[in-house]
């Protein structure tokens, strides 16, 4: 089938002067109002408490690290003696926090140390960008405030740019709805010899508390900054999640539930939400995300905007392109949900990544010297037909709803000969392995990459059940190599010659203490797209 191209409308011919749900004049008027939201200071001004006294342990939320580079890493903590209360049990004063990085867990050889300021504007969170470290080695770190000290964290830097490590091990997961289960995968993840953890979004869920669930959210659906802070605190107080942050560096990106379900750039899923309300809530959500994640200053929120897409290189072995498929996308076409591939699916103006992010991604892929080029992103790229017979149906929220963008990226993989593209995906609460074809309607079309889809950590409950819609999808989509409905995470082992993937699953999440199983393992050979079951 030839690619249908919708006509390019000029401003004068666009109906009602609307772009994907928000009128231009209306949006510009509200944007002017929202621009008065002040940017938050990176450093404190005025008095800083150097000898603070706390109502309890200020390090209840633990420590974390992330965004590793060859000479350094971000280390994080947040002062909150009462983390489930507005303000976290802290006063409105800035607080001096001391930090240390050592080569050993006993801190006999401290090699870097300094002071940071935890400001109330950022919820007394601390993000220290430690530099001057050696490439690709483990370090230990901790924080002190007043007479209190944090637990000891462990982190690892990335390899030198010209180095080719013999092995890189990392795990990825997503979708950890607190109410629907216990984070049973994380204790098992902690037992693996990992260099990195990658989280692909839906770190929290914004929904209000519901009856009849294994666990219960605090409060209503979150909207204010305090709401989001308390929700993140409730998740981070989970010992399994907190400890996994403590012992591995993380690469994180968001999906929709960190803000609001199924939003698309400036468009809410809900009717009647004004652009002003939407952007104020988005500013609250984005700020809270920054406050709780081990992110660098390059990701510092600017009101309702926050640049999260970035690159993380592991020498010449792997290059992670961490993407944001929510903030810049156009509205889901054809009214969202599952629809035939027609109409606005083929609108050339529609975009999943936005123009700037797409150009940035393609530029990075052109310059890459790495064997494995990894896209860490949110929604399924393969065009999974979930309909029956001739009634073909595709998710408008996933890449097939943005078919021009999807085909353009896969064509770029093929024509520019990008080495070994591997797409990591979350969102769908199921495991999949998909061959990425240049033309999915032609079974003989060249393979241009591989997609590995991780299931949820807890979202949608225990899992392991038979889902007719997806059983049917496996049978009628020849590019599918594997499907599974359990919960868990995915472990990947990379060498210069091959990529080995293990799908780890937990039989249940409605109570703690689940064992772990390996449902399947797949190998991708360097230089040959597509995964083979081992």
Care to count the β-strands? 27
- Number of helices in the DSSP assignment: 8
CATH topology of the largest domain: Purple Acid Phosphatase, chain A, domain 2
The secondary structure category is: alpha+beta
User: Between the first and last Cα atoms, what is the distance in angstroms?
Assistant: 35 Å
Radius of gyration: 23 Å
Q: Spatial order of the strands in the main sheet?
A: 8-5-4-14-13-12-24-25-26-27
In CATH terms, the superfamily of the largest domain is Alkaline phosphatase D (PhoD)
Q: Would you give an account of this structure?
A:
The chain is built from eight helices and 27 strands. It is α+β, with helices and mostly antiparallel strands. It has two domains: 48-155, Immunoglobulin-like, CATH 2.60.40.380; 169-227 and 249-278 and 309-533, Purple Acid Phosphatase, chain A, domain 2 (4-Layer Sandwich). A ten-stranded mixed sheet has the order 8-5-4-14-13-12-24-25-26-27. Helix 3 (225-236) packs parallel to helix 5. Mean pLDDT is 92; it is low at 1-21 and 36-45.
Quick description:
The protein is an alpha+beta fold and 534 residues long. The chain has helices at residues 24-34, 185-190, 225-236, 239-247, 275-292, 355-367, 403-415, 468-476, and strands at residues 18-19, 22-23, 48-49, 63-69, 72-78, 94-102, 110-118, 125-130, 138-145, 148-149, 153-156, 168-173, 196-199, 249-252, 310-314, 318-322, 338-339, 372-376, 394-395, 421-425, 431-437, 447-453, 480-484, 487-494, 498-506, 517-525, 532-533.
């Amino acid at each position: 089938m030839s690619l249908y191209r919708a006509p390019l409308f000029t401003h004068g011919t666009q109906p009602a002067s609307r772009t994907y749900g928000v009128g231009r004049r209306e949006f510009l008027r509200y944007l002017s109002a929202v621009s008065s939201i002040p940017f938050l200071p990176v450093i404190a001004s005025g008095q800083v408490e150097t000898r603070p006294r706390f109502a309890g342990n200020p390090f209840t939320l633990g420590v974390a690290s992330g965004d590793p580079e060859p000479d350094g890493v971000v280390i994080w903590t947040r002062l909150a003696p009462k983390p489930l209360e507005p303000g976290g049990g802290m006063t409105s004063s800035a607080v001096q926090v001391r930090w240390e990085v050592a080569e050993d867990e006993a801190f006999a050889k401290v090699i870097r140390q300094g002071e940071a300021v935890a400001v109330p504007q950022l919820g007394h969170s601390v993000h220290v960008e430690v530099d001057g470290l050696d490439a690709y080695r483990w370090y230990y770190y901790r924080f002190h405030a007043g007479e209190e000290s944090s637990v000891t964290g462990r982190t690892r830097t990335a390899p030198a740019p010209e180095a080719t490590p013999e092995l890189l091990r990392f795990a990825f997961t997503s979708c950890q709805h607190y109410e629907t289960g216990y984070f049973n995968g994380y204790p098992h993840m902690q037992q693996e010899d990992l260099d990195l953890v990658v989280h692909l979004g839906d770190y929290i869920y914004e929904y209000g508390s519901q009856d009849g669930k294994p666990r219960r959210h605090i409060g209503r659906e979150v909207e204010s900054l305090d709401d989001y802070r308390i929700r993140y605190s409730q998740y981070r107080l989970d010992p399994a999640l907190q400890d996994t942050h403590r012992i591995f560096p993380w690469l994180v990106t968001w999906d929709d539930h960190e803000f609001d379900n199924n939003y698309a750039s400036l468009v809410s899923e809900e009717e009647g939400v004004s652009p002003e309300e939407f952007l104020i809530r988005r500013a609250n959500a984005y700020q809270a995300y920054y406050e709780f994640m081990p992110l660098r200053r390059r990701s510092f929120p600017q009101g309702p905007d926050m640049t999260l897409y970035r690159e993380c290189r592991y020498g010449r072995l792997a290059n992670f392109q961490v993407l944001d498929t929510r903030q810049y996308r156009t509205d889901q076409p054809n009214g969202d949900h599952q629809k035939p591939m027609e109409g606005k699916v083929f609108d050339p103006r529609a975009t999943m990544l936005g123009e700037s992010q797409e150009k940035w991604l393609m530029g990075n892929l052109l310059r890459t010297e790495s064997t494995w080029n990894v896209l860490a992103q949110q929604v399924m790229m393969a065009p999974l037909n979930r309909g029956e017979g001739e009634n073909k149906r595709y998710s408008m929220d996933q890449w097939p709803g943005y078919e021009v963008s999807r085909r353009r990226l896969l064509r770029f993989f093929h024509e520019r000969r990008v080495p070994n593209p591997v797409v990591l995906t979350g969102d769908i609460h199921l495991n999949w392995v998909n061959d990425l074809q240049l033309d999915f309607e032609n079974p003989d079309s060249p393979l241009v990459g591989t997609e590995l889809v991780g299931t949820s950590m807890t979202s949608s409950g225990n899992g392991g059940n038979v889902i007719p819609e997806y059983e049917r999808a496996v049978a009628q989509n020849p590019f599918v190599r594997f499907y599974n409905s359990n919960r868990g995470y995915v472990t990947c082992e990379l060498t210069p010659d091959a990529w080995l993937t293990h799908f780890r699953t937990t039989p249940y999440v409605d109570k703690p203490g689940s064992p772990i199983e390996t449902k399947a393992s797949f190998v991708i050979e360097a230089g040959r797209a597509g995964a083979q079951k081992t």
